[in-house]
């Protein structure tokens, strides 16, 4: 954990501040940004950038203008402009890096849509904010029960209260359009607050809820990934993956974001490979590509009508065959370009007094089951012989 309140305790067990990333230091949150310009002084006669980046619940971030010239630093809890009332958030970035982030998000610093920072949050503001957040889990359960009773094909994934507790935002996912006019009436009557419904995608829902992926680690979207790029099935084809929806889909039901991580490396490596749909013409016959290995630079071809017999070739060998094919001087056969690699046998020695590696290969001897009976029979025979 990043902050001291979330550090490990005795026997390596985590203490856990149980604030879900809203503690004062804000060091354990996934959206915390390292300000690498904090020690760099501004040139003379230049004012600091008057906008700051503020984070709210989960992955929601917004930019606000510091019109009151407050001395703000990363981790400060501030009251910001909202409609209506005010909202409470944590400052995640200040200075010139905010200008870079606003340019990245296509946000105009001079726009009137950029809100204002009212003040640093007082203890009363923080108490109201924490009390409102404690109501969210119970409201989520009740809201889902109401939606099921009204037979609405939607899923309420998360609830976010405004900092002053005057409004609650209900995040939901739905495949079709939902008529929730009656739902809002019942929500307003049940929760006694202003209701706002906001639809999100399935990937945003997975980022909010979190979970463990098939790799055994936490989901990328809930730990460090802040933007969602388009993932296509062609990314799986380039990486020679089987097009199995159960393996390629994440918890959100969409294609996994990690399919794009190594795609550029695969595309760079595939530039040296010939086209797989191109046949190799030889005097023995035409051969078709069956399989490739991008890491080893190998291709496997099989003659037509002999698909069970695969021939392993290097990329250089395939290029030579294609060059001869273009010159209309086909090679005799593909077997001329195969290279047999001698398999080295590794011998193990018992130099350190270890047991034999083949001790389990020897069959066990069948032991007599009735040893006592055999001994009794032998004694009786001896007694009979003596008598």
General description of the model:
The chain is of the alpha+beta class and 387 residues long. 27% of the residues lie in helices and 18% in strands. It has eleven helices and twelve strands. The strands form three sheets. Strands 1-2-5-3-4 form a five-stranded mixed β-barrel. Strands 9-10-11-12 form a four-stranded antiparallel sheet, covered by helices on one side. β6 and β7 (167-173) form a beta hairpin. α3 packs across α4. The radius of gyration is 35 Å and the shape is extended. Mean pLDDT is 82; it is low at 19-27. InterPro entries: PSP1-like (IPR047767), PSP1_C (IPR007557). This is Regulatory iron-sulfur-containing complex subunit RicT. It comes from Psychroflexus lacisalsi. Residues 115-200 form the PSP1 C-terminal domain. Residues 353-387 are annotated as: Disordered.
Short description:
The protein is of the alpha+beta class and 387 residues long. It has eleven helices and twelve strands.
Q: What is the arithmetic mean of pLDDT? A: 82
Q: Compute the number of helices.
A: 11
Return the string of H and E elements: EEEEHEHHEEHEHHHHHEEEEHH
Q: Tell me the distance between the termini.
A: 88 Å
Strand residue percentage: 15-25%
Task: Determine the fraction of residues in helical runs and give it as a percent range.
Answer: 25-40%
Low-confidence stretches: 19-27
Strand order of the largest sheet: 1-2-5-3-4
Biggest sheet character: 5 strands, mixed, barrel
Overall morphology: extended
Work out the radius of gyration. Answer: 35 Å
Total number of strands:
12
Structural class by secondary-structure content: alpha+beta
